[in-house]
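SEQUENCE AND FOLD
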Amino acid sequence: MILGLFVCFFECKKEQSHLKHILTMSKFVRIAPSPTGRLHVGNLRSAVFNWLEAKKNGGTFLLRIDDTDLARSTKENDQGIQDDLTWLGVTWDRLERQSERFARYEIAAEKLKADGRLYPCYESEEELSLKRKSLLSRGKSPVYDRASLKLTDEEKKALEAKGIKPYWRFLLNHEMVNWEDGIRGPVSISAAEISDPVLIRADGSWLYTFTSCVDDIELGITDIIRGEDHVTNAAAQIQIFEALGGPVPTFTHFPLIVGKEGDKLSKRIGSLSVPNLRDEFHLEPMTLWSYLAHLGTSDPIEPQLNVDVLIKGFDLKKVSRTPPKFDTDELMRLNARILHMTPWSSIAKRVHEDLSLPQADEAFWKSVQANIVVLPDVKDWWHITREAIGGIIAENDRDFITLAADVLPPEPWTTATWDAWINALKAKTDRKGKDLFMPLRLALTAREHGPELKTLLPLIGRNRVLARLKGEEA
């Protein structure tokens, strides 16, 4: 009786949620990070793909915190994941936590048990390991042999009397599981070649394969967009969806990112978290949007300052089956291009507050932005233009630098001052080209490269320029 009420309640909740999305004809997608750590590159790509798909189709984006692992999940990581997404600009329409849904999983598990699709197993990890090794040594696939299904009720009671708690597997129907994948196209997997998946551990904790299906049914997820490492999981999950009486979502599995040389993504890159990308690489959020939205697609990776452009052009059909190569050098070049395009109005607050440069203005930004790769580079140029530095004057250039100081134009200075100064020097020396301007650049900036000196001169100011030419500023 109680089980019947549980199942009825489960079915009603499921139907209400799914009906809402059928009636609205909208897509409902989700990402499901685990709060055992911060978001990394792979998570970000999944978030970008799902978010863009939702926005492109007027759908809903769910952030589901998969915190069933109570021992390893932390509130700090939960909040950190939300902070990471907020920094990137990924907004969610709904937030759910699996730790608040345990009762729902109990109801679903009871339904599967009652239907004979969830059965107890008693092997230890060591026993299972020996079975796998034995099968592999004989050239066979390490598929679970369903030995626990042959146990009698008395045998089960005897094992439990010894303190052995069962874990629970889902009984797969040994048939072909077919679906049309959004990227891979037609997919067929024989369930006979897959071990019956464990849904509940011996300690009573839930596994992702099961809880994800329950959530997707009840919350009304219509499209599952994730990495291709879940393709085999999809075959098992489709049968779980069907066993629970729920609609099967559309599946789209994209290739996983690989390293620059085409090898499996190294831990150094694969473990890049949002804090790493933001605080160590100093990447702009739009750099990651521009890169990840088109990485592995037929579209070129170009800098974009607005996600609306990415939404408009996004199409999962453009994603290649070939694993995309993650190149940090390309990412840094893209970051530079993003900053070179960024208007002062969009960056002023960060320059003033994050970089602690309240006196910086648009003229300064326009002068230096073409020569920065990451935003903190701005501080270097602020130091060069507004603070004391030690210029570089080669011994064989000292007479030339002394002459340059003598013909230095009076203020007020504009961007035309540089040409006037250079023309005066040309009239008094036979220097030209690099021999003419490089000694001046080194004396004034202590660098061989940088913004055009015609834009830097007014920022540095005549008194500071003169002091550097005379070697009086250090």
